[in-house]
User: Fold these one by one.
Assistant:
Number 1:
Amino acid sequence: MADAVVTRIYSNFIMRILSLAVLGMYLSILSAFSQGNTDSSKYQNKKLQFEEVDFVASYYRQDGNNSAVTGGTGTEKLTDFTNTIELKMIKYDNKERKNQFKIEFGIDHYTSASSDKIDPSTISSASFDDTRLYPSLSWNRENEKRGTNVGITASYSREADYKSYGTGVNFRKTSADKNRELDISLQAFFDKWKVIFPVELRPPNYGTGAKNDNLRVDHTPRNSYTASLSYSMVVNKKLQVLLLTDPTYQRGLLATKFHRVYFTDGSARPENLPNKKMKLPVGIRANYFSGDYVVLRSLYRFYIDDWGMKAHTIEMETAVKFSNFISLSPFYRFHTQNAIDYFAEFSKNKLNRTYFMSDYDLSTLESHFFGMGIRITPPKGITGSGKLNMLELRYGHYTRSTALQSDIISLHVKFK
Amino acid sequence: MKNKTSAYIFLTVACTVVFGLLSCKTVKQYQKMYLNDAEMKLGARKIQRAEQNFQIYREGASGANGGKSGGGCGCN
């Protein structure tokens, strides 16, 4: 009996020593991680390596009855099929800095019933459908020791009546404890429009803009400059917040000349708007992990511009994690805005105004967007091979107080 | 115009200052189990890109949501 008691006390003592040793090891590992400094002696492969490929496809359709092409009345039926593929490669240099190279290629194909009304005399004009191509390249260098990341981007976009060259630089600084991050980026887009007029408002000897038409068509620039600033911080173990703003200045042809505008006397002219615009959106995002299975994501954005528009947008999304690998995310978005100073409904524009338009996208409106997403990320990949790393599917329905309705379904797959 | 510009600057500065003044707890790397979850990623996700794109066309506001703010398309 006494032996049994001694043995039990001895084994308890050994267990405590072992537990303390394990706890000590655990704490020393944690303290090593918590120092936040990168071990400069760790070896990184210096060769250019594949990191991941993302493929996103999306199908969008809409219908409404306030087309700007026909002066604020008429069909807004439109479909858009979007595909983008993004390849990421990484390479560590001799100073252990991570260089990331990103190549992206996007292609959209859309059909628009209202664009077809630019020249209703044709059975189906060149503007009935169009394809947009948009490749981009970017390079980022991350210095983990200093907590900095710098990068440059170049982009191009082309569709039948629009060409765009974009460039940008970005800088990011992460705090030593990795709880705060400041991101600054400057972007410029140098765009060029082909100025297309509705058939009955075309000046004499002015072309249609179609490829097979040799008559003269003007090309006008529209340049956009954006200085983005964002600051993120960890508030506690389950909450993080991001503040962001993208002040933007635009200059050039901001009116869409194939939009008709009808006046109170029944006459019509092409849309006319100022050639400058200053926009200031300010947003705040907050993500909160509630319990062990629910993530609440939210966004509030305030927007103001010097054309007289103010807007508020709220987004809420709840990701419910059924396991570590599957989550379901219902979402809701509400947007409200007032009309710009130059907007008037169909046939209500006054003749004495310098600037005028009947584009309901810039009218007073409220919109609701809701839907559901599912995300699957099994540890061994979707197919078991580990290459198809993630699959996400999302559907949303959009309604606007101007009676426009639309649906969008998107798919995102990631290969690693 | 001058008043509007002042309002823009004030709003930007005020938001930055207020945000900067908010003091937070220091969360260690080993305490970031929840924060490092893929669902907790701040910023718009890739799958939302097409949604943001149509919203730029169908509404007057843009930017400050992880999407485009202007340029590169014939949108508002």
Number 2:
Amino acid sequence: MLLAITIWIFTLITVILFTDLVPEMLELASGQWFPETASVHGAIVDAQFFNTLMVTGVVFVLAQVALGYLVFRYRERPGQTAYYYHGSNKMEWAWTAATTVLFFVMVSMGYGVWLDVYVHAAPEDAIQIEVTAQQFAWNIRYPGPDGQFGIVRPELIDDAAGNPLGLDPQDPTGEDDLVVPTMAIPVNRPIELILRSKDVTHNFSVRELRLKQDTVPGMMIPLRFTATKTGKYEIACSELCGMGHHRMRSFLDVLSDQGYADWLEDQSEF
Amino acid sequence: MADAAQTSHAVHEAPTGFIRKWVFSTDHKVIGIQYFFLALFSVLLGMFLSIFIRFNLVWPGTEIPLLETFFPVGAPGGVMTPEFYLAFLTMHGTIMVFFVLTTAPQGGFGNYFLPIQIGADDMAFPTLNMLSFWLTFVALVVLLAAFFVTGGAPISGWTAYPPLSALGEIAGPGLGTGQTLWIVSIAIFCVAALLGALNFITTTIDMRTEGMTLMRMPLTVWSWFVTAILGLLAFGVLLAAGILLLMDRSAGTSFFIPGGLVVSDQIIDHKGGSPLLWQHLFWFFGHPEVYIAILPGMGVTSQLLSTFSRKPIFGYRAMVYALFGIGILGFMVWGHHMFMSGMSPYTAIFFSLMTTVIAVPSAIKTFNWLGTLWRGNVRLTTPMLFAVGFVSLFVTGGVSGLFLNQPSTDIYLHDTYFVVAHFHIIMGVAAIFGIFGGTYYWFSKMFGRQMSEFWGKVHFGFTFVGVYAIFTPMHFLGMAGNPRRYPELTGFDFLEPLASIHLFITIAAFITIASQLIFLINFFWSLFKGKKAEINPWQATTLEWEIPSPPPHDNFAGKLPVVYRGAYEYSVPGEPLDYTMQTAPNPPES
Amino acid sequence: MATIAPPLPKPQTPSPGGSGDGFDRRDSGGDEGHGAGRPKSLPDRRYYTGMMLGLAAILMLFAAFTSAYVVRKGLSDDWQATAVPGILWLNSMVLLASSFTLEKARRWRQVQARFQGWWWATTGLGMIFLIGQIRAWQELVASGVYVNTNPSSSFFYLLTGAHAVHLLGGVMALLYLSWRVWRKNSGGLGATALGVTALYWHFMDGLWIYLFLLLLIGR
């Protein structure tokens, strides 16, 4: 009895907590529990999240309620005997099929956005920005007016002297490269990040834009997105990278076109 | 035949003397108990570490005198530095996954009850069994030594991803000798696990008594069998990965370390390796490993639900197939730990599909557990409570998995507390409930005395409510984007509003951990002062309930049983009692 | 309600071979309920099962190494094939010969003198193989090829080294069994002990051929 009640109360609390979120999401209210999304693909990721929440939510509630009910309804009572029954193949096939269909339909709905972010090539006019992670900071590099990233050499890396990427001074294309600790982008324009790492594996993540990607040393990994809301968002590291993992903080400023141009100019003046 | 006569002597002569009987024993029952106590020690240590983990997340910078005494270098002034936190976190994960969840369910209960439940007088290779345990013990000692060497324990997590784990002290404290000891410990553990797996499989195939056909074996035996197969095929790969990592660290090779690395302005002289190679090898092992952790708990749950519903397990055959399905598929899903790793997005889709497939046999098992309760005559004894709790937790942990197996939603949830919630509910709670259930169920058989039912139920109540209180809010932390493995939560604006949730979780954790004292006191008190146990207090049907509590050295006192029935003949119509032993002759025509 | 279970029933089928010793019962009546009839009696069978499983585990270790090999080779352009020292051809033949002598020893297990001869030949050939491997490594070191010189050399040392460790275990088993025969000084070894040792040894032989081909072809 007590057990059944405990299971039901827990189910109820969980439902309340989760469904309280839905109106919050729909109203795009405080955005703290599940931050308001600020990117094109983010909206689709959220939609898939909610599809999943609906399906799993129903499954969860049904299963827990059933568990509590069965334990309560069939508790030992004088004169009650159990039903000597080994099972039913028909039922096995039935619920196997139902589960399979349900799960596969739900899961397939999400592959579209996955392909969008990771497979489909960025449009021609995407702004390319390079992100190089290191213990324990982010280095953001803009190619500058010539649109080309200069050559970098590991042996030239010198954090103290202000050359964290090892830009080769002899390479003319690198002269206009801008290397800064924070990132700014224009809103509503396609962006392609090129993610790299200097030392160990880190992970570039911005929760509001639903961005997350490991930065693997030895690899250059593209990450494509378009921001839809201006604002200042925190960049966090999401792969354990050492004792400073928790303080690899930077900022992503999503600005208007003009704001972005101004920002680039300001940064270049340093 | 000369060999047979020799081995039968080795098994049948009971050893004398303390060392032969309790230390270097080849008796599977003693070894089972040794594993059980090793796991008990390990879980207490793991919980102890987690207290500090939760404490530091809410009250960082506090001076803790106890820490200063033991770790003057790692925690100067008794304050947990971030690296110290990460060392605790790494060791917590390693100890819990390997030395608790890969020992107690299989090495503990499996060792003790597999031979008995199939009617054998010991494991196939008793001496090898003893060797497995002692190697595991050595592995634990080597691991714990990491706390006390220069630099301390490693900070790379239980997953030890290179390059972080491969570059040595230059990449962080604890990554020198500490990391080496970690790798060596795991390598020893691999060998122990492989030897154990070999023993379990051989025993199940070759040592069954007359009448014990495969389809009459209890589901506990099936679960230990499939678990052993997983272990046999997975641990070799982990061993290989560990050897490659050791070579990268000490022999100058570059399996995992790419070129061009600069750490703290120092150029690293390696090139051409791939960090992803480690991840593939590790998770090829790592995913079967989590099934190794849970499958025995599923077996125990099936056993308990049937016994205490007084009803045959619903769909025995389907349950067996589901075990195999989960086992086989378990080798094909490892990439779902790597969606964000930089591997090919097409590969990600493959792994996502396979992971969706594996949800199906898991669902089948859940349906069958519910089906077993349906129209039963349910006795809510303490072991039964934990079995029901297992089902509840398995459902919860399972559905949260459905968010993580989709790469699209994983974009957001990867490496957040949502993942922490998921794996803790499945492994850190459901699997533990399997262990608790087994303990309360089999205690009387192992030790000849009974645990207190009342205090067992109290323990259940606190724990069941407690674990949900701890881990449900973690899903919300994940949804808010709270990253994992952060020693402190003070560095980001978006983490600030989440502090109250962390406080709630920490308080819940402290209360739940404290309530485990109820279990410990019950356990140890009953060990010495518990009421003497009957031979079959639960009125169960499997072979262990026909022999004395505790059983004699060769289990069946020289007369191996003959089996006529399956393991779940409860409430058979026409029988005088609501349970029928497996050895009861003249079963009705099927 | 709660009653003690009925005592163990007497088995319905009579069991020749006595009741006190479980193995006797299982030996004779044991095929019932175990599925298909089996040629070997059960106490022996478990050693074969155990050995096969052990070999499966070893196979997984080398499968993991192989997959690492393939991946690493395809990864970057720094792979420079390691020339296989010529002595490896000789070693391979030595190992193949040892499998042959082992089988001979098994056939003569009832005749101690003959058995000893073939058995020592096998052990000797095994040791010669290991010494030959050491020579191969010395050759490589002498020509400046170390374990960290190149990824291909890393794998060379790794694969040959891991195999050698396992073969050393095999040689130790051969020595142990020789000692057992010498100590007991009567009769030969049981067919089982020889059988599982042979399984292990031939597997190591086969594994060597595979690794050798991998190192040759993989260049």
